[in-house]
Amino acid sequence: MRFDANTLINLDQFPIHSDGAARDALIAQIHSKLAKDGCVVLKQFLTPMAIRLVTAEADSVARYAHRSFNRTNAYFTTDDPALDPDDPRRRFFDRSNAFIPADHFTKTGPLRQIHDVPAFDPFIKACLGQQHVYRYADPLADVIVNMAEEGEGFPWHFDTNNFTITLAIQNAEEGGLFQYAPNIRRSGENFDAVKQVLDGTSDKVVSLALEPGDLQIFKGRYSLHRVSPLRGERKRYVAIFSYVEEPNMVGAPERTKQLYGRVLPIHLERAGQRADRYID
């Protein structure tokens, strides 16, 4: 079934589809917030109907989620014994989470229909305020749903892609806070600041309680972040739309295998093809 934009997005409050003063003011507010700490939340961006539709879609494909239970550092790299034992690259934490890969969400499903609203990409590009913004070309990771259950969460990490756009779909009964330390990578790796976050001594950590229908724009390549453990029987669903600064970018093979349980030929063909020099 096809839906129009008004059915899916709260266009009265967020006029992303119409040029004019209201849209310009909204984008200006977003620019200010992103410049400050790399994160902005648009409350109730989705309509109640859209929330119901996407929740039902996530439920219908939840069985395809790749669950992983392992230990990772903030960079998803392997241990390097040559480094100091207290180096943040040698700090590993339990990770228990699940991702429903992108190839389980069809073009005619509600999640991709939201992403494909004609005004959506231009709005995101205007919000990010950068000349080069592209949809993530990874066929397993461009549009995904993060699924978490009782006791699960996601430890401190950086994102592979430069910008992440998330839609909160369904919360657990308790827990699941989104916590981040803004702009740690503004000028390099900044391992000392990362160590403070991992040690629990940083004063930079911000906590957000996202609600179903909220749209979050986040520069996860530069800000260390995590999701706190969940409590209760209800699953937590968060949809993720990923954007990058280079065309045709896909995830690194090792990290893709960790997150989605498999790699495709495209991941091996394009391994290492990105301009920045961050270790992940």
TrEMBL record:
The family database entries (PROSITE patterns) matched by this protein are listed as:
FE2OG_OXY
Presence of the UniProt keyword Cell membrane in the record: no
Please tell me whether the keyword DNA-binding is annotated for this protein.
no
Q: Which residues cross the membrane?
A: none
Which species does the entry assign this protein to? Puniceispirillum marinum (strain IMCC1322)
Protein name (Swiss-Prot/TrEMBL):
Fe2OG dioxygenase domain-containing protein
* Family matches, as Gene3D superfamilies: q2cbj1_9rhob like domain (2.60.120.620)
What keywords would UniProt list here? Iron, Metal-binding, Oxidoreductase
| Highest taxon above the source species | Bacteria
Instruction: Tell me which family the UniProt entry assigns to this protein.
Output: Belongs to the iron/ascorbate-dependent oxidoreductase family.
Q: Where is the Fe2OG dioxygenase domain?
A: 123-245
Molecular-function annotations in GO: metal ion binding; oxidoreductase activity
Which InterPro entries does the record cross-reference, listed alphabetically? BesD/HalB-like, Oxoglu/Fe-dep_dioxygenase_dom
